[in-house]
Amino acid sequence: MESLMRRRAPVVLVLVVAIMFQASTQICVGGQILPTGSGRPNDDHETSTTQEVNHNKVLKSYWIHRDHPDFSSSAANTYKTRSHSERIAAAARRSLIRAQYISRRVLLHASSSKSFDSPLEYVNGDYAMAVSVGTPPQQFIAWIDTGSDLVWLNCKPCIQCIVPAADNPFDPALSSSYQEVSCTDAACTDFPNLLSTCFGKGPCDYFYGYAGGTTTSGVLAYETFTFTALDGSSIPVKHITFGCGQNETLYGFPGVDGIVGLGQSRFSLPSQLSSGPGFADIFSYCLIPLFDTIANHSTFYFGVPETNISIYTPIVSNTIIPAATFYYVNVTGISVGGVLLDIPADTFYINPVDGTGGIIFDDGTTFTYLTAVAYDAILKTFQSQFKFPVVSLPPFQCFDTSSATATIIVPTIVLHLQSVSGAAPVDFKLAEDNILLPVLEFLYCLTIVSDPLSIMIIGNTAQANHQMVFDRVKHQIGWASTTCT
């Protein structure tokens, strides 16, 4: 059990549970606000850092959540103009769309003998970072996504980009290191689902068809991505394959220029960086809690051997759908307030027939989505221990704590996961900030949601204040409870 100080959320009259507003459209990286229209830092801004650890190059960058107060529109700061409940409603809507999209991808895989459709989300993510591309470097902002693989940006000639062409997409003509992928290159022939077209010895044109009918297309190319060291020196990484997108029919990408995929296929940024000398195939991040108004930006490391982390669970492969490069894990059970719940052992298994089911870590989904069997067991036990009136605000179950006369005790929720050794399970502990979200004054909502999806998702709210390590060398995920602010 953990104590919850009686923090008061802003008082509002109505909780909006379905909101159509887009998120704020400015981003701050490393303390600098990047306005919409340029969407980029100044050329002399430090976008990332590097140091040497055990002879491996280590890159450090900063992620910022779209609901951080530094995310603001050029016209108005939406953090100030929107109510607290409106931001939560927007997060709920965005999270559900993301979860449903992942679910549809899995269902499509399960019902087809073809390889997967697009590995990219068609809605915006929760975290973004600055990237430097080309020679000399051109600056861009891209969403970060552990649930996708390809790195891609808006490119000239911009027929229909995700932001107006006037927003200055990547210009290949200004880069001496730009090289189009040819039809005979492995990057073209290995492209997911063979959704690439070639004419003779010409460039490799790619096309991605998304669930929901959205698409992205353009030219597959090689470029140099540059990171800036602590001492101000530049660390260029050459020959990164990326999508030079020229025709996008995607939605919900205000103020950003593309996506940096962190999935497991050969096209993701970690896979490509680790193929070069000096980079270990490990990345980690530490996410600040949702709506933490005093926090700095979340940190991201690539190539960091986190020797202080000793808790690991294996990354599980979906052998039925090998192209689904999500970060699956084996959950063996769940406890609430120290009580092990009676949940059938196969609830969290990947279906051995069609590849549906299973549970993944995903940084792009805000909340945690569980099947009804697991969710109902959690809610029943949580209610028996957290004895406050229940208020239903779909998709959330909330608690009215106005009657509290002392410090509120919040039952902890623990996900028990398979250990690397195969011995006793290891525990992924959810503290109060991972479990309850302050919505209205005295009203707190569970961040775990029940939805009949084809896959379960441990979202970024559950991962907040954990140092998460994705060790792709040893095929394991590790974590340690910490303070990410």
Automatic annotation (TrEMBL):
This is Peptidase A1 domain-containing protein. Residues 1-25 form the signal peptide. CDD domains: pepsin_A_like_plant. Pfam families: TAXi_C (PF14541), TAXi_N (PF14543). Residues 127-480 form the Peptidase A1 domain. Belongs to the peptidase A1 family. Gene3D superfamilies: Acid Proteases. PANTHER family: ASPARTIC PROTEINASE CDR1-LIKE, OS07G0603500 PROTEIN-RELATED. The keyword Glycoprotein applies. It comes from the Eukaryota. PROSITE patterns: PEPTIDASE_A1. The lineage of its organism: Eukaryota, Viridiplantae, Streptophyta, Embryophyta, Bryophyta. Keywords: Aspartyl protease, Glycoprotein, Hydrolase, Protease, Signal.
